[in-house]
Write a structure and sequence with these properties.
By secondary structure, the chain is of the alpha/beta class. 34% of the residues lie in helices and 27% in strands. It has three domains: 191 residues, LigB-like (Protocatechuate 4,5-dioxygenase, Chain B, 3-Layer(aba) Sandwich); 98 residues, Hypothetical protein ph0010, domain 1 (Glycoprotein, Type 4 Pilin, 2-Layer Sandwich); 69 residues, Hypothetical protein ph0010, domain 2 (Dna Ligase, domain 1, 2-Layer Sandwich), CATH 3.30.1490.150. It contains 13 helices and 19 strands. The longest helix has 18 residues.
């Protein structure tokens, strides 16, 4: 996954700003760099957190419907106008998880067809990189932050990332937000000393990559700075808590009295990093990770206990895949280490991976939720994996697999994998999967 903090000054769009865009050249260059980074990653979906759509004090707003059109007509630039398809599957999963985590959300198809400028401005540069004329080649999910406490903002970010993982979407997240609006006495909002202090604190966090430190910024400074980005930044921090973050701070400037900060966050999933490191250590004859290397990984991966499936591909083709339905080790750290080595060396369908192949391998790690009994009506091929049992025979199939579009197909394949005939009675279990890519 990739993530970004970007501002949204309409003046940065040449059709709005004209010659004035030369006063924010650093921001323009940063927009272009972020857009190229996004286009190179080529996401299926861009999740954009914007404070300028519908915003509630006590709930997060999610734009639903088939899609929406975005332009800057209110800033005297009706063109370009671009149509964006909404990722309805991801939206539905996000709403479902919010309900499960007791996070308040509001959504409506009515009025959601207008894409606000908090999304349009950063996406303008993305579209320019893609050469878009009137229809974006990617889908979007638009989310508005709320005025709920930081802890809820952080949890909402985590739920966004989990929804992306459950659906298996190749996605990027943009937290769109300007910094303080009170940087200059001749600016539109005047000057207050807390304005520059807030911007220094925020950009320091961006540069460090320790995004959880956003919540450590002095509350008084935050409140007085008149910024619009902070809630979205905390949500982004929550979304990236399972990742090793490498920041690429691009620029900061505020010539009009409003702060514009731009940063790219490279996000390496901890599970994928662990699988890769474990197999490479083993293949190169250095056995297991050292204690110093283990110390780099966060506590959650060393405490949770679950079944894990590690799949390795080379050139888009399967190169090895081994997993467990339920936990075999005390934690997912050890589970992932062991299964990564097994997937690379002990899958009977393939020869063992060689050292020469290591740079070409791509890893996926699925962490299994606990199975629960279910009926056919309670299955969903996109959301739940399935286990079918008849006596001692069991067959398992992961969710959201290409070519498996119905529950009956899912059950039929699971029967075949377990050696269970089409007319034999079966017990059905379902489970959620957290996919790490």
């Amino acid at each position: 996954m990739r993530a970004y903090i970007l501002p949204h000054p309409p003046i940065a769009v040449p059709e709005v700003g004209g010659d004035e865009t030369t006063r924010i050249e650093a921001t323009e260059r940063s927009f272009a760099a972020a857009a190229k980074d996004i286009a190179d990653y080529d996401p299926e979906t861009i999740v954009i957190i914007s404070p300028h759509s519908v915003m509630y004090s006590d709930a997060f707003y999610i734009a639903k419907g088939s899609g929406g059109e975005g332009n800057l007509a209110r800033f005297n630039a009706p063109k370009p106008s671009v149509y964006y398809r909404y990722d309805t599957e991801l939206c539905d999963e996000l709403v479902s998880l919010c309900d499960e985590y007791n996070i308040p959300v509001a959504y409506s198809e009515e009025g959601s067809s207008v894409v606000d400028h908090g999304a349009v401005v950063p996406l303008y540069y993305v579209n320019r990189e893609y050469g878009v004329k009137d229809r974006a080649p990617y889908m979007i999910v638009r989310i508005s932050p709320s005025l709920l406490p930081d802890s809820v903002l952080y949890d909402m970010g985590y739920v966004i990332e989990r929804a992306i993982a459950h659906v298996g979407r190749r996605a990027v997240i943009i937290a769109s937000g300007d910094l303080s609006h009170k940087l200059k006495s001749d600016g539109p909002y005047g000057f207050i000393e807390e304005g520059p202090l807030f911007d220094i604190a925020v950009t320091d966090v961006m540069k460090s990559g320790r995004l959880e430190d956003f919540t450590k910024i002095d509350k008084n400074v935050n409140d007085l700075s008149a910024n619009c980005g902070y809630p979205g930044f905390v949500m982004l921090a929550g979304a990236l808590q399972d990742y090793k973050i490498t920041p690429d701070f691009l620029s900061y400037e505020g010539p009009f009295g409003v702060g514009y900060g731009c940063c790219i966050f490279g996000c390496e999933n901890w599970y994928v990093r662990l699988a890769k490191a474990s197999l490479e250590k083993h293949i190169k004859g250095r056995d297991k990770l050292s204690e110093d290397e283990k110390a780099e990984y966060p506590d959650f991966i060393k405490k949770e206990r679950a079944g894990v499936l590690v799949c390795i591909k080379k050139g888009g083709r399967l190169r090895g895949c081994i997993g467990t339905i339920t936990a075999s080790y005390d934690n997912t750290f050890e589970e992932t280490c062991s299964l990564a080595v097994s997937a690379g060396t002990s899958d009977p369908r393939f020869p063992a991976v060689t050292e020469k192949e290591l740079p070409e391998l791509v890893y996926t790690v699925d962490v299994m939720g606990l199975p629960e009994k279910a009926t056919r009506d309670e299955l969903d091929v996109r959301k739940y994996g399935v286990i079918v049992s008849s006596g001692f025979r069991r067959g398992l199939l992961l969710p959201n697999l290409e070519g498996v579009d119905t529950v009956e197909e899912q059950l039929s394949i699971s029967r075949q994998k377990g050696g269970i005939g089409p007319d034999e009675d079966i017990e059905i279990e379902r489970f959620l999967v957290e996919r790490h890519t």
